[in-house]
Every structure is written in structure tokens, then in C-alpha cells.
Write a structure and sequence with these properties.
The protein has 396 residues and is of the alpha/beta class. The chain has two domains: 126 residues, Aspartate Aminotransferase, domain 1 (Alpha-Beta Complex); 234 residues, Aspartate Aminotransferase, domain 2 (3-Layer(aba) Sandwich), CATH 3.40.640.10. The strands form four sheets. It has a seven-stranded mixed β-sheet with strand order 2-10-9-8-7-3-4, sandwiched between helices. The protein is globular and about 65 Å long. Bound molecules: pyridoxal-5'-phosphate and (2S)-2-hydroxy-3-(4-hydroxyphenyl)propanoic acid. One of its GO terms (molecular function) is L-aspartate:2-oxoglutarate aminotransferase activity.
Length: 396
């Protein structure tokens, strides 16, 4: 039966990662995949994670099955990290399942949406993380896009976004990135979040908040402010979170799917469906990564150390957002790159065309996604001159 299969293209972002590895140019720069890198270009295991892992090795007492929702201590701590001391938590309206990464969470959410409404359409930003589209389609949901990023003015298309969302059906879902929008880095401001939240309430669509970069934009709390405002305003919400970036746990696959329901009783019903979905896909999540997160969040000392490390990562990203703008201007580049400083998280579009992107790759071994999305964390003091020089040449 396998002979009927046709080969399919691989993920272009992950493909870029492989191509970069094979490039022998000693000056090569990887601005592709969204993984944090330090000044040396490494993605180290966080110190707080190392300590929590050492603790776990000593203190783990069983490898018995963990249960459908995974580590319940982790789930509760994630709810607090996401929502703070929110009234929805006090009213016992939130239920969370630990999932295999943010992607696992999104897939669980997709199946959950399908159980709510088989005909639901999920609305995603133009552009969005490519996996969003394939993942919801794979779950049999319709996917439509709403205007989001203004490539020309390097800003939000906020009025167009709101106009489009006014006509979304009540049974549909609108996915919004909580912070550090992937791929544009362009986020809603506080006022815009308010308008969006009121619209969700008035129109009656359900919001799915994808929060994969909490702490990478402004701070842990500020990056969740839009999410919390939404939770203040609407009765129901789906939250897909990931610990891949902020805890640097990428390959351990740690995330969570949280459902906020109208009241404690409906939350129990939602939870039963959530867990039934989990059971039908992978039964239970892996234990290691979530245990590390729970250990860190359960210790004041480790939490403090993690906050410091997160501040370092965010600080480096923001420092280089400023430096890219300044250095390109100093080098005489005419185009205005000040938008990079107004955007958040690891990603921004440089606004280059296909030919310029190709030249950067073939002539300079500088790798970025075909949309000209760069991972700012790939730039360092060590490769900045080389990057600026290459940019000056391809922008001539
Ligand atoms: N959502 C967004 C917007 C992302 O950029 C990513 C990828 O890193 C994810 C979700 C999923 O992250 P992961 O499955 O690695 O936890
Ligand atoms: O957009 C990125 O680069 C990150 C990492 O299939 C990623 O979100 C990219 C592709 C993929 C999984 C993770």
C-alpha cells in the first residue's frame, strides 16, 4: 500500500536548519529557525534547568504512568504563570492539560474545537507560523486568514483586522499570538487588545491564544497582559502555551493546553472532553520536561535564577534589535530599519526580496526564512560587522 504515497515537501524552516549545518563557510550565520542563541551562537541548557534536572535524578521515585493531564503541579503552576491571580482561577473555571510542546497543545486544541463544532473555521493572522495552518487543516477544520501585518509600513493592519473579524461567525475560533508574533514580531498594544477583547465579546467568536514566547518580549507579566485582559472580558478561552523558548526546553516537548469555561461546572465538562482528546492521540505526555518546569516554579531560588536567565535572553535580543537598526543606518543603508526596535521577540521581516535573500545565502552564507524573517538572536557582536557589510552590499 505504501507505493501509492507521493513524497511531500519537508518543513522549510527545519530544512533551512539542515542546510545551514552542511554549509562549510566559516563566517556562516543562522538567522533561520526560532531558537534562542547566545553571543557564541549556542543554545545552552539554562542553569536553573540543569539544577532542577540534578534534583530530579536524585529524587524521582517512580516511572509509573503519569495520567492524561500529565503533571498536575506543573498544570497549576502554568495557570498562574499565564494568568497571574486571575478571577477565572479563583472561580475554578480553568482546566489545564500538560502537552507535548506548544505544537501538541495546538493539536489538542484543534481536536477540542472539532468536538465543540465540527464545522468550525479557525481564523489565523496573515502571515502566521506555517504550522498553524497545516495543523488545523490536518484536524479537519477550515482555516481562514485575517489581515495582520502591513509589510509596506511595517506595522499592524489593525483596522483591517477588526473589520474582517466583525464578520466572523459565533461558532468560529480566532487564533491570536499573545506576544512576539511569529513571524512579524508585531504585537498589539494595550488599547488594541481592549478593542479586540470587546469585539470577541460582542461578536461571540471563541479566541485561541497562542503563547509560545512569554518573557521574550517585555516581561513575563507584560507579555501575558493581552491574554489576561481577554480572560477578564470573555467567558470562554483556549490557551496554548509552550515552555520551549522561555525555559529553553525545546526538545523536551513541554507545553500546556488550558481551557477557561463559563463556570466551574462547565469547566469540568470541558476538562472531560479535553482529556478524552488527549487519550485518543497520545494517552499521556512525557514526564521529564514538565517536572523540570514544576521544580523551578516551586522553588524561590530556582525561579529567581530562571528570571535572571530569561532577562539575559530578552536583554540580548532587545540589545541587538537596537544595534541592527543603528549599525545599518551608520553604514549608510538608506532604508529605515527602525521598525525592528518597535517589534518584539526573536523575529522580524527584514523586507528583502527573493534575490537579496538568495544572495545573502549563496554569497555570504547568511541563512533566513524565504519571507526574509530573521531570528534576531542569531546576530552577535562577533558577526555583526559581517552581517552589516553583507546587508549593505545586497541593498545597494
Ligand atoms: N506557536 C508559535 C507561534 C511558535 O512559533 C511555535 C514554535 O516554536 C509554537 C507554537 C510551538 O512550539 P513548540 O511545539 O516547540 O513548543
Ligand atoms: O518558527 C520557528 O522558527 C519556531 C521553531 O516545524 C519551529 O517556531 C519551526 C518549525 C517547526 C517547529 C518549530
Amino acid at each position: 500500500m505504501f507505493s501509492a504515497l507521493k513524497p511531500l515537501p519537508t518543513d522549510p524552516i527545519l530544512g533551512l536548519m539542515a542546510a545551514f549545518k552542511q554549509d562549510t563557510n566559516p563566517n556562516k550565520i543562522d538567522l533561520g529557525v526560532g531558537v534562542y542563541k547566545d553571543e557564541q551562537g549556542n543554545t545552552p541548557v539554562l542553569r536553573a534547568v540543569k539544577k532542577a534536572e540534578a534534583f530530579r535524578l536524585e529524587n524521582e521515585t517512580t516511572k509509573s504512568y503519569i495520567g492524561l493531564a500529565g503533571n498536575l503541579d506543573f498544570c497549576q503552576k502554568m495557570e498562574s504563570l499565564l494568568l497571574g491571580e486571575h478571577k477565572a482561577l479563583l472561580a475554578n473555571r480553568v482546566r489545564t492539560a500538560q502537552t507535548p510542546g506548544g505544537t501538541g497543545s495546538l493539536r489538542v486544541a484543534a481536536e477540542f474545537i472539532k468536538r465543540c463544532n465540527t464545522n468550525a473555521t479557525v481564523w489565523v493572522t496573515t502571515p502566521t507560523w506555517a504550522n498553524h495552518i497545516s495543523l488545523f487543516e490536518a484536524a479537519g477544520l477550515g482555516v481562514k486568514e485575517y489581515p495582520y501585518y502591513d509589510y509596506e509600513n511595517k506595522d499592524l493592519l489593525f483596522n483591517e483586522m477588526i473589520d474582517t473579524l466583525k464578520s466572523v461567525s459565533k461558532g468560529d475560533v480566532v487564533l491570536i499570538h499573545a506576544c512576539c508574533h511569529n513571524p512579524s514580531g508585531m504585537d498589539l498594544n494595550a488599547e488594541q487588545w481592549e478593542v479586540f477583547a470587546e469585539l470577541a465579546k460582542d461578536v461571540g467568536f471563541t479566541v485561541l491564544v497562542d503563547i509560545a514566547y512569554q518573557g521574550f518580549g517585555t516581561s513575563l507579566d507584560a507579555d501575558a497582559a493581552g491574554l489576561r485582559l481577554l480572560a477578564d472580558t470573555v467567558d470562554e478561552l483556549i490557551i496554548c502555551s509552550s515552555c520551549s523558548k522561555n525555559f529553553g526546553l525545546y526538545r523536551e516537548r513541554v507545553g500546556a493546553c488550558s481551557i477557561i469555561s463559563e463556570n466551574a461546572a462547565t469547566a469540568d465538562v470541558s476538562n472531560s472532553v479535553l482529556l478524552s482528546v488527549v487519550r485518543s492521540i497520545y494517552s499521556m505526555p512525557p514526564a521529564h520536561g514538565a517536572d523540570i518546569v514544576a521544580t523551578i516554579l516551586g522553588s524561590n531560588e530556582l525561579t529567581q535564577e530562571w528570571h535572571q536567565e530569561l532577562d539575559e535572553m530578552r536583554g540580548r535580543i532587545n540589545e541587538f534589535r537596537g544595534l541592527i537598526k543603528t549599525r545599518l543606518a551608520e553604514a549608510g543603508v538608506e532604508q529605515d530599519f527602525s521598525f525592528i526596535e518597535r517589534q518584539h521577540g526573536m523575529f522580524s521581516f527584514l523586507g528583502l526580496n527573493k534575490e537579496q535573500i538568495e544572495r545573502l545565502k549563496t554569497e555570504y552564507a547568511i541563512y533566513m526564512v524565504g519571507s526574509s524573517r530573521v531570528n534576531v538572536a542569531g546576530i552577535s557582536h562577533g558577526n555583526m560587522d559581517y552581517f552589516v557589510n553583507a546587508m549593505v552590499n545586497v541593498l545597494k
